[in-house]
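In the design runs reported in the main text, the only information available to the sequence generator was the tokenized backbone. The following block is the verbatim input for one such run; it is reproduced so that readers can re-run the procedure and compare outputs position by position.
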């Protein structure tokens, strides 16, 4: 392992993905596309557990207008699909959204982490712009600075 590897605090997956109009025709295709785009799943993902968790989360947050607990999500999945899912697996998938900054947990309930400058406190898109894009821009600035310094070292 190289010594700088211990400096890594977080990883972002940035994918360049086509967005054909057909993706917008169904909720499931949009859910899969967004999951792939956010790096929540890999392009070769065959398991559907992440989708079940996200579908239940978004159903409870946006359709039923209630911040869910892991037990609420577990119950929603079971009632809709008859699939038994452990709380640990549910938390694993939710933690990915928390790590991105899009979701936050308060008193065992999950909420959209609102953009500080937004009137739409429950907007996924604005949360993404505020938290994920901000972090990526900061990392790009650091990398640009490092590349400039590296080039200068070679030009001496």
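Verbatim output:
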């Amino acid at each position: 392992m190289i010594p700088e590897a211990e400096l890594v605090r977080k990883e972002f997956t940035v994918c360049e993905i086509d967005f054909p109009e057909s993706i917008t025709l169904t909720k499931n295709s949009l859910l899969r596309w967004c999951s792939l785009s956010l790096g929540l799943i890999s392009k070769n993902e065959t398991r559907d557990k992440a989708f079940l968790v996200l579908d239940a989360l978004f159903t409870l947050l946006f359709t039923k207008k209630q911040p869910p607990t892991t037990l609420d999500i577990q119950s929603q999945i079971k009632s809709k699909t008859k699939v038994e899912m452990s709380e640990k697996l549910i938390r694993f998938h939710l933690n990915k959204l928390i790590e991105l900054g899009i979701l936050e947990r308060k008193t065992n309930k999950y909420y959209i982490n609102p953009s500080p400058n937004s009137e739409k406190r429950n907007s996924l898109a604005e949360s993404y712009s505020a938290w994920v894009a901000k972090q990526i821009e900061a990392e790009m600035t650091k990398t640009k600075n490092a590349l400039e310094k590296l080039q200068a070292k070679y030009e001496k």
